[in-house]
Structures are given as structure tokens and as C-alpha cells.
Write a structure and sequence with these properties.
By secondary structure, this protein is an alpha/beta fold. The chain has 4 helices and 6 strands, in the order H-E-H-E-H-H-E-E-E-E. The protein has one domain: FAD/NAD(P)-binding domain, CATH 3.50.50.60. The radius of gyration is 17 Å and the shape is globular.
């Protein structure tokens, strides 16, 4: 099975053309990490006219959610354990953002421009954004 392809940074000419309104950015963008920054990056990509596929990979089985400071009410076994999602599930679907939840990235090979996951998920892509939720 072949590992996914990465290209690293976007070409400066592509970024300049996008800023000047001469064309949308495209390619397949994969976001590794499903924290608050990842949720915002998904929204920003679509807001800035990223037309290519976007995939969000997260080790946790949940979409990005607010992570409030620990409190006694959260430690209460009878307390509310509902996660407050940063963006509703419908947001990702309506903006054509594919989510791979419960999937851990096991390696990033920058030289070969590949990403490997523990579940052997793969795709070809033009750009990758590393995002840490810790």
C-alpha cells in the first residue's frame, strides 16, 4: 500500500496569485491534529477560497471541541459530560471537509513527502498543515 504524498510549503507564486485575487488555492490539504486551531484552519481554508479537498485527521474519536479548564463539576461522575463542539458536524459536511477521527499519524517522512497512519489511511495531497492540540 502506498503512503500519501506531501509537497510541503505552497509555491510562492501560487500564494501571491491567490492574495492578488488571480485564482483559488487548490490541491489536497491534510490537517493533522483536531484541536481548536484545526477547526479554525478548516474554516479559514474555505473562507479563503481553498477549492481542493480538505481532510482533518484526529487521534480522538470526536470532532474538535472546546477544552475548558478543569473544574470540580467536570470531575463529578453525575455531571454533564457533553462535549461542546467548536463547529457542528454539519459544518464539516457542508464545507466538504473529510474527517478521519480516531486515526493517529504514526510517521511523517518529509524527504519522501509521505504521511503514515496506524490505520493505513492514505491519500495524495499537495499541502499539509501540522497542528498540535497539546
Amino acid at each position: 500500500m502506498q503512503s500519501p504524498r506531501l509537497s510541503g510549503k505552497a509555491d510562492p507564486g501560487t500564494r501571491r496569485a491567490h492574495r492578488e485575487g488571480r485564482g483559488p488555492m487548490s490541491g489536497h490539504c491534510v490537517i493533522i491534529g483536531a484541536g481548536h486551531g484545526a477547526a479554525q484552519l478548516c474554516a479559514s481554508l474555505r473562507q479563503e477560497r481553498w477549492e481542493g479537498p480538505v481532510t482533518l485527521i484526529g487521534a480522538e474519536p470526536h470532532l474538535p471541541y472546546h477544552r475548558p479548564p478543569l473544574s470540580k463539576t467536570q470531575l463529578d461522575p453525575d455531571g454533564d459530560t457533553t462535549l461542546q463542539l467548536i463547529r457542528p458536524e454539519e459544518f464539516y459536511a457542508s464545507h466538504q471537509i473529510d474527517t478521519k477521527l480516531g486515526v493517529r499519524v504514526s510517521a511523517i517522512d518529509r524527504e519522501r513527502k509521505t504521511v503514515k497512519t496506524y490505520r493505513d489511511w492514505e491519500t495524495d495531497r499537495k499541502s499539509t498543515r501540522l497542528n498540535s492540540s497539546h
